[in-house]
Amino acid sequence: MTRPDRAWLARDPIVVAPLLLGATLAHASPEGRVAIRITEVEAYRGADDPGAHSFRGRTRRNATMFGEAGHLYAYFTYGMHHAINVVAGDREGFGILVRAGAVVEGEPLARARREARPRRSPIVELARGPGNVAQALGATLADDGADLLGTGPWTLEVDDVARTRPMPHRTGPRVGVSGDGGDGRRFPWRFWLPGEPSVSAYRAAASRRRRQAT
DNA sequence: CGGTCGATAGTCT
DNA sequence: GACTATCGACCGG
Q1: How far is the C-alpha of A118 from the C-alpha of A127, rounded, in Å?
Q2: CA–CA distance from A169 to each of A22, A129, A153 (Å)?
Q3: Handedness of CA A151, A153, A159, A164 (dihedral sign)
Q4: What's the pLDDT tens digit per position in A161-208?
């Protein structure tokens, strides 16, 4: 495992995203260190991608996506969840959402973070789904903009073979994204490792009808 | 299984 | 004021 250089990340996310499968993403904090082996990602392509936060241009929230590759874009959504992207791409506004991972270090801390939040069912997978990935790693808005390739608390390491050849993986439509082509077409920009229990189940975007009732 | 729904607040029009 | 790159519970088959 070695840390990638910035140029390696500064390419089309459709190419880089599958190469991040199997990579190790880690965060060290005063509480301790947690690392995950990435098992599921999604590519987002800015102005070319109606499903991307950055599709309509730069705003306060998505500013990090318009900066240098190799930084962390962290955001807060649905009033309760954080999620993290690796800024990666040859153009502004491009990035890769980290949707799931297997906790390979700091499992007790990751579990403690999950248990700090009220729940009514046993925890099976600690980093299944983007909200849970952020929580396991302890990512918040304070981590937005953090450099993954520097000397700070965040590190990214890629397997030497996987640097050029992605691990055997599957491809499909992104979760919770409805925009895409607008013609019903869905971009197959979700990538995952088959047989991994941490990979989240596919869900279509929430329908609008639901909210109109009553 | 699959479909549906509530929680809950930041973001953007 | 509507929507959201979600999660987990619940309900029907």
Answers
A1: 16
A2: 10, 17, 29
A3: negative
A4: 889 999 999 999 999 987 666 566 789 999 999 999 999 878 878 765
Angle between helices A107-115 and A130-137 (to 10 degrees): 110
Residues with CB under 7 A from strand B: A 53, 56, 59-62, 76-80, 201, 203, 206-207, 210, 213
The Å distance, CA of A212 to C1' of C2, is: 10
In three-state form (DSSP H/G/I as H, E/B as E, the rest C), the secondary structure along A104-151 is: EECHHHHHHHHHCCCCCCCCCCCCECHHHHHHHHCCCHHHCCCECCCC
Q: Which strand C bases fall within 7 angstroms of a protein CB?
A: 2-10
Is the pTM higher than 0.90? The answer reads yes
List CB contacts of A182: < 8 A, sequence separation 6 or more: A50
A155 touches strand C (CB under 7 A): no
Chain position carrying tokens 């499992």: A107
Asked which of A20-24, A47-51, A119-123, A168-172 is least confident by mean pLDDT, the reply is: A119-123
| Percent share of chain A, pLDDT over 90 | 82
**CA A120 → C1' C9, Å?**
9
Amino acid of residue A151:
T
**Interatomic distance A155 CA / C10 C1' (Å):** 40
Cβ of A195: how many Cβ atoms within 10 Å?
9
Please state, in angstroms and rounded to a whole number, the distance separating the CA atoms of residues A47 and A52.
8
